[in-house]
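Handout, section B. The chain below has 138 residues.
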Amino acid sequence: MNDQRKGIVGDVIVNNKDKLYQWHSTVLNIENIFQNITSSSYGHENLPGFYVSSVIFEPGDVNDTFIMPNNFKRGFILVNGFNLGRYWQEIGPQKTLYIPKYFLKAYPQKNVFVVFELEVVDNSATSISFYKEAIWNN
C-alpha cells in the first residue's frame, strides 16, 4: 500500500523533450464553470472542453443504467452534479460508466450530463448513449 502513488511523482516533460521548471497546479472549480455554460459545447477547437446535454426521462424510464461517451477519448462524466468517474476509451477496461437510478430525475425535471474531454475530438461526431448493461473493452 505504501508504494501506491497518485498524481505527478517525477519530472514534468513538455513535448517529450523539455523539462518544465517553476510551475504550479491549480484547482479547477467545476461548480463555477457549470453555472456559466450555456451552449452544448464549451471550449475551443483543438483544446479540451466541456460538453453539456440535458435529457428528460419519463417516470417509468428512470432505472439504473450505463452511459457511453461515443467518439470521446479521455475525461470524466457528471450527471446532475454527481461525478460518475473517468473514462479512457482506448485503454478501458470499461467503455461505459454506471449511473445509479437515484442520480437521475423523472419528468418534468431535466437531467444534465457534462462530459469533460481532455483530448481533441471531432465535436460533430460526439454523443452519449445509454445501455442496460456494462460494455467492456475486448
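Note. The longest helix spans residues 30-36. Compare this with the example in section A.
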